[in-house]
User: Which sequence fits this backbone?
């Protein structure tokens, strides 16, 4: 309604903002190979989702390891944190082609780029969560002669789970962006990034195609986000109020 | 009389700070016999919590020594001789009530059977068996603190350290929990060291009340509480109870730093 209303109200031409039915209709159009577009989109979306998922997992684990390292060693933190921060100041658009050159155009390079966007929020948030422990909760562990391993497994880690999930929510959408950006450089053959590049080239001819690709890409990100929220509810179900969407 | 279970000898503690070290405790000595219930009372900043934490090897003394069960405090801690209760319940949010009480047994690697049976018996003792599956946030502050006491007793410790456990509770809950604590404590074999702000609470619970004064923290006086046990609520109405409360209050007042009567006057 807002879409079509805005379009009518401001007399936005079709090439700037196609009708919704045109965008949805694009999914039914036959592609060059005779396949319908919804099937083409689904295949590419699946490809991108898989890359994102692998990158998300890879980045999440990297972030976790870094955060645990940082909380165990101030020296490690002082040595590495500047580079971790610096890594995020370089635009992913600049990094992506290099990673593709280094690692090839397979799914792996895309997953690495997705991981690149994922690990940072996890590192920062988890490092904070692991440190934000009630001093008396630690004193209790000490009074009970807990080993440092027990302190980690039974106190630090579970206590910092809410921090971890906050980071994972941010990372969930970022990892999809990373995978798509990773698919943009020349040489990639599958994924939403490829679909978007192609659609952009033919935009004047059939604008609805790009809009459909954007829609699908957004849906992947939204699905990822909700998967994390679902997991969060399941893992931290002990919390008084389920975290809001 | 046997050897004291807790022996604090000439303990001093200074904390470093930007404006130079602050002396929290000076030359504190105290002997506690097995089965005693000792309260430490004094205004804020008198080092009573620090003293408790030195006994529990949570804080290192700058000078002097604390010995427990004939061992160093450190060895006693490693042998899991302590149960501890803090001002806040310090329950782990992600564990149920039962799982919180199981924690000490888990850490000590006790067998499964004991890990199941002992916490349930303790929860029954503090009247919370029905809440074993609840999470801490679902319980009132008083109930949470009862869980915390059950947890402290999980390993049958010989020393029960309590750092203002009822300080955050309302007066009615506090009095009820005082009574419950005495029941639970007398059912255990633990010697209790109890830090408090409340004169009435100290007199009601203790066999001796240690009165401290601040800057630096020293022991002013030790008041023997000769009220009979078991102590029931009606003891609070007896003349001897009032006499002892008055004695403790006057010991606190004698301190010139407190003449203005900041905490001490209000504590009851």
Assistant:
């Amino acid at each position: 309604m807002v879409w079509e209303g805005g379009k009518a109200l401001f007399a936005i031409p079709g090439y700037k903002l196609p009708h919704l039915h045109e965008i949805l209709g694009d999914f039914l159009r036959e592609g060059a190979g005779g396949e319908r577009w919804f099937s083409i989109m689904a295949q590419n979306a699946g490809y991108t989702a898989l890359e994102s998922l692998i990158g998300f997992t890879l980045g999440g684990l990297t972030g976790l390891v870094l955060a645990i390292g940082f909380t165990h060693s101030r020296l490690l933190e002082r040595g590495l944190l500047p580079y971790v921060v610096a890594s995020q100041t370089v635009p992913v658009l600049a990094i992506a082609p290099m990673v593709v050159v280094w690692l090839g155009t397979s799914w792996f390079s895309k997953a690495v780029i997705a991981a690149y966007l994922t690990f940072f929020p996890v590192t920062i948030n988890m490092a904070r969560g692991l440190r934000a422990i009630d001093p008396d909760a630690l004193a209790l562990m000490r009074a009970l002669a807990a080993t440092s391993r027990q302190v980690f497994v039974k106190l630090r880690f579970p206590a910092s789970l809410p921090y971890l999930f906050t980071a994972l929510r941010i990372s969930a959408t970022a990892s999809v962006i990373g995978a798509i950006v990773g698919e943009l450089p020349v040489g990639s053959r599958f994924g939403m990034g490829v679909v978007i590049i192609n659609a952009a080239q033919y935009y004047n001819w059939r604008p609805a195609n790009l809009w459909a690709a954007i829609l699908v890409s957004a849906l992947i990100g939204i699905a990822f986000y909700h998967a994390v929220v679902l997991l969060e509810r399941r893992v931290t179900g002990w919390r008084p109020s389920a975290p809001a969407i | 009389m046997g050897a004291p279970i807790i022996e604090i000898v000439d303990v001093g503690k200074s904390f470093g700070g930007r404006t130079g070290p602050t002396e929290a405790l000076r030359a504190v000595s105290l002997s506690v016999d097995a089965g005693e219930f000792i309260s430490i009372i004094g205004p804020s900043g008198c080092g009573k919590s620090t003293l408790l934490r030195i006994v529990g090897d949570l804080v290192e003394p700058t000078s002097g020594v604390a010995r427990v069960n004939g061992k160093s405090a450190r060895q006693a801690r490693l042998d899991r001789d302590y149960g501890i209760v803090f001002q806040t319940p310090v329950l782990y949010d992600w564990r149920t009530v039962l799982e919180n009480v199981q924690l000490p047994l888990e850490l000590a690697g006790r067998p499964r059977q004991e890990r199941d049976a002992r916490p349930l018996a303790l929860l029954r003792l503090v009247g919370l068996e029905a809440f074993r599956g609840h999470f801490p946030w679902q319980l009132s502050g008083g109930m949470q603190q009862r869980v915390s006491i059950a947890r402290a007793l999980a390993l049958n410790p010989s020393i029960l350290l309590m750092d203002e456990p009822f300080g955050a509770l309302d007066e009615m809950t506090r009095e009820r929990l005082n009574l419950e604590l005495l029941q639970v404590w007398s059912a255990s074999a633990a010697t209790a060291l109890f830090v408090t702000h409340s004169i009435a609470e100290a007199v009601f619970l203790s066999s001796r009340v240690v009165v401290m004064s601040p800057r630096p923290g020293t022991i002013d006086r030790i008041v023997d509480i000769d009220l009979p046990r078991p102590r029931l609520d009606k003891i609070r109405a007896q003349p001897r109870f009032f006499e002892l409360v008055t004695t403790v209050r006057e010991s606190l007042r004698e301190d010139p730093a407190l003449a203005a009567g900041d905490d001490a006057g209000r504590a009851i």
Chain A is about 75% helix and 0% strand.
